[in-house]
Amino acid sequence: TVRPECAPQSTYSCDGQTIRRTDTSRLCETTTVDVQTCVAPSFCTAGAARCYLPAIVGAISTPVEFVASGARATISWTSTHASTCTVTGNGDEWTGRSGSELSSPITQEVKYSLNCVSMSSTFTDSVTLTPLPAR
Fold first, then answer.
1. CA distances from 9 to 4, 6, 29, 31 (A)
2. How far apart are CA 89 and CA 87, in angstroms?
3. Are 31 and 40 spatial neighbours (Cβ–Cβ below 8 Å)?
4. CA nearest 100: which of 134, 119, 127?
5. Contact between residue 114 and residue 124 where contact means Cβ atoms under 8 Å apart
6. Does residue 19 sit in helix, strand or coil?
7. CA torsion, points 84, 63, 55, 36, in degrees to nearest 10?
């Protein structure tokens, strides 16, 4: 017999890294199946039917803000949870999730930008270098 209080439905739950689907029939019978296992660093959340990747965390920096005109500066960057990152500025371009490179000569104010991507998010940060006038 069909029980009116049991409407057919499917619900999702998360147990650690495993997504589970529980199906309830019109007869109030339930079955549970593992749908997917999230691979670290991805994770699942209660009620979700998919794995999520953590957001990208990153930064670009230089030890100085001002440089002598024509001087070079060290540009450093880091990221976590990114698939790829690119740093661009002043005609320079470097790739890698983290690194440290020496810039081309700085002759005018220049912005170096860090752009990172993953399967689920993007991240952007920048740093500006300003040349000091020649004496």
1. 13, 9, 11, 11
2. 7
3. no
4. 127
5. yes
6. strand
7. 50
Calculate the alpha carbon distances from 2 to 21, 24, 31, 48, 117 in Å. Answer: 22, 12, 17, 29, 51
Q: What's the CA gap between 95 and 86, in Å, rounded? A: 4
* Residue pointed to by tokens 């690119």: 86
pLDDT grade, residue 120 (50/70/90)?
A: confident
Contact 116, 79 (CB under 8 A): yes
pLDDT digits (tens, 9 = 90+) for 60-107: 999 999 999 999 999 999 999 999 999 999 999 999 999 999 999 999
pLDDT-above-90 percentage for the chain: 58
Please state the length of the chain.
135
Number of C-alpha atoms within 13 angstroms, CB side, residue 91? 6
